[in-house]
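Suppose you are handed a protein chain with no further information: no name, no annotation, nothing but its sequence. What can you learn? This example shows the usual starting point.
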Amino acid sequence: MTKQTYFSISNSLPVSKILEPGTVYRLEAKTDASFYQERTDRNIGWITAAEQEMLSSAVVGIAGCGGMGGLVAATLVRLGIGEVRIADCEVFDISNINRQFGATRNSVGVSKAIATARMIRDITEDTTLVVYPEGINENSVDHFLQGCDIVCDEIEFWAIGARILLHQKAQDLMVPLMNCSTVGFGTRLFLFDHSGMNIGDMLGFSLTEAFELQDLISSKEATNEVIQSVLSSVLNALIPELPEYGHSEGPHRSRERCISRLRDECRAPIIATNPPLASGFVADQTLLYLLRKSTERRDVIRPPITPGYLYLDAGLMVAKSVTRMEVGNENTL
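A reasonable first move is to predict its three-dimensional structure. Written in structure tokens, the prediction is:
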């Protein structure tokens, strides 16, 4: 049995920055069949009208509304997905403005989930939008996952407890997840469909350990050893090929600079140009996954079994599918 004891449901977004604890915001679709058909009309050709109908009844969850998640959510709404769920417990800060969909000078200090929902609702109102401003936690995770066809895991780098919790509950409910990153000029995508290695084994932490480490880091009480342990774990599991684009030697190389910022500041360097590429990549793969049972046959590359992944890099002009037998670790930590 899934837990349904978390919250009250509101049918409107809050007016102020102050949120009611334990509240999820469910904005029902305002149905207008002719408007929906016209606004999704340019999809037809690459997909069929019957496939668009499939998308109109699909439910997709996006955990994390940061550098990629907010843009993924907006893209899937534009695509015509019937219900989109977004979850994020953080508020926007000034440093988010360089890359995050919902980040503007007016949304600094505002819930990422709420601000993103407002911007998405301005796009169209014919998609049901469900908003979880307390993010993924023990109380919300079952409700967030129940009924999803697929979930995009865009939880932030250091939140390993929330990530493992999401994946464990998704496995219980047989909900597939995609994890996709933005690193340098590239991205890599993992499909966790329960046929391969799970995220807990890839990271090497139990759920209890992961939350303890996450709490230490978020409270700024983590030792250098703890930070190094989590950093190594996440990089080795989810970014096994950290790219290098420069020719400088030693600590001035871009890869070493990025690792140093992660280690010393717990902040991941992300350039403004790459989240659109990465979010488009995961949105495309989400679309193809949702249409996998369509009668339309396509010659496309599917994500391999985890820990295998798909890799795309616009700077190095590399695109490849890496099988689980080929996964290595080229990071220097």
